[in-house]
Write a structure and sequence with these properties.
- The protein has 458 residues and is of the alpha/beta class.
- It has two domains: 90-330, Aspartate Aminotransferase, domain 2 (3-Layer(aba) Sandwich); 336-448, Aspartate Aminotransferase, domain 1 (Alpha-Beta Complex).
- Helices cover 36% and strands 15% of the residues.
- The radius of gyration is 23 Å and the shape is globular.
- The termini are far apart.
- It catalyses: (sulfur carrier)-H + L-cysteine = (sulfur carrier)-SH + L-alanine.
- Belongs to the class-V pyridoxal-phosphate-dependent aminotransferase family. Csd subfamily.
- Its cofactor is pyridoxal 5'-phosphate.
Length: 458
């Protein structure tokens, strides 16, 4: 049977490869036309989509990549010898290589998951399974490095998304380990002095977000990884809000594990990825078991493949992986340095405009302020005095502006900031200056619309 080559990934139609020039508003306007969902009206007004922090819109090249897979290569991967199965397997593994290269790792170190939440749970349950295996004398001596018990500590931060908090709460419960957290100050800034005190000889794992989904800040990865390394602890990075918006190299960051999600970076829903150092992934026990991740099965026990297949039981997210690679191609063609620089400018514009409004409290760094030597990226959350976040969101929606409202899966951080909910505007590669202007104009009307005119709480 002749091997059939896989078509080259689809490229964005309107974005060139010269990355030296600034990604300006005129190019953002051109990019916007690559996204069909943005070409519509909402409540009688042109859509202003400022909810990319929750989920991004998809360019035609990504939509076409998934459709093309189903039309020309649809088959199960790693399971057949017929031509379509070969095409499907090639496309699936080439997608892995594309996404892995985007974050600076080897393909064997990238595991496909349904989303970042599953990726983080995968690590937590693998540690839990390692604890059981070690107790029952199963596995290698290397596996025992992951076993946890009373006296061991897992450290997180107070600004984590629930997806990078609850799995560690449950892991501590299952193993008897203690969960500790690095606090933030009144503004939401991590207390690094407390981090140095908390991370110590009993720390076995440190899990933290690369970028805050609420505050728009980039965490001091080098300092936190250094503290973890000094304690001999594993590190887990939630990179959901960083990989879509800035150049990220997990090897350079020196983390052990990292999770990110496709739907926040132009790819479809239902696809995410876990990075893990190869020697760690190969030593960990699997999370899900079944077909496609085994070498030998008897009626008494099974032997498992090395990573990444060890963690990819059953029928996989093949078309989504292919489309994920197309999304990565789109971002790479646009230029991640250019995207990061533009989002920093848009984030500053959002922060300035929000902070200038009476009765509106900007969360996170003040305009022009940098925490941990990084500028705010394109996220700005805020509280409108006297108006619930849901009402703020509904009013903005009536003006055609889509934002996120609620606790953003970060209840502990909201509680620390004295809030139960907030409103969040988040920009991306297709966001224009006109989008920001329309949002700020609508936000300026909110308190007047609801009859709240005092400056209390500003």
């Amino acid at each position: 049977m002749a091997l059939v080559s896989v078509p080259a990934p689809l490229r964005p139609a309107s974005v060139g490869t010269a990355h030296s020039s600034e990604l300006d508003d005129s190019e953002a306007e051109r990019i916007r036309h690559d996204f069909p969902a943005l070409d519509q009206a909402v409540n009688g007004r042109p859509l202003v989509y400022l909810d990319s922090g929750a989920t991004s819109q998809k360019p035609r090249s990504v939509l076409e990549a998934e459709q093309d897979f189903y039309e020309t290569r649809n088959a199960a991967v790693h399971r057949g010898a017929h031509e379509l199965a070969v095409r499907a397997t090639d496309a699936y593994e080439e997608a892995r290589a594309t996404v892995a290269a985007f974050v600076g790792v080897d393909p064997a170190e990238l595991v496909w998951t349904s989303n970042a939440t599953e990726a983080l749970n995968l690590v937590a349950y693998a540690f839990s399974n390692a604890t059981v295996w070690a107790e029952r004398g199963r596995g290698t001596a290397e596996l025992r490095r992951f076993a946890l018990g009373p006296g061991d500590e897992i450290v997180v931060t107070e600004l984590e998304h629930h997806a990078n908090l609850i799995p560690w709460q449950e892991l501590a419960f299952r193993t008897g380990a203690t969960l500790r957290y690095i606090p933030v100050d009144d503004d939401g800034r991590l207390d690094l002095a407390e981090a140095a005190r908390i991370i110590g000889p009993n720390t076995r794992l440190v899990a933290f977000s690369h970028a805050s989904n609420l505050l728009g800040t980039v965490s001091p990865v080098e300092e936190l990884v250094g503290l973890a390394r000094g304690a001999g602890a594993f590190t887990v990075l939630d990179a959901c809000q960083s990989v879509p918006h800035m150049p990220v190299d997990f090897k350079a960051l020196d983390v052990d594990f990292a999770a990110f999600s496709g739907h926040k970076m132009l790819a479809p829903t239902g696809i995410g990825a876990l990075y893990g150092r190869r020697e760690l992934l190969d030593a960990l026990p699997p999370f899900l078991v079944g077909g496609s991740m085994i070498t030998t099965v008897t009626m008494e026990r099974a032997e498992y493949l090395p990573a990444p297949q060890r963690f990819e039981a059953g029928t996989q997210r093949i078309s989504q992986a292919v489309a994920f690679a197309a999304a990565v191609d789109y971002l790479r063609e646009t230029g991640m340095q250019r995207i990061a620089a533009r989002e920093a400018r848009l984030g500053e514009r959002l922060a300035q405009g929000i902070a200038a409004l009476d009765g509106v409290r900007l969360l996170g760094p003040a305009p022009g302020e940098e925490w941990y030597v990084h500028p705010r990226f394109g996220i700005a959350a805020f509280d409108v005095a006297g108006v619930h976040a849901h009402d703020v969101g509904q009013y903005l929606d009536s003006r055609g502006v889509a934002v996120r409202v609620g606790h953003h899966c970060a209840q502990p951080l909201h509680r620390r900031l004295g809030l139960t909910a907030s409103t969040r505007a988040s920009a991306y590669v297709y966001t224009t200056e006109a989008d920001i202007d329309a949002f700020l104009a609508a936000l300026a009307e909110v308190r007047g619309f609801f009859g709240v005119t005092s400056k209390a709480g500003s």
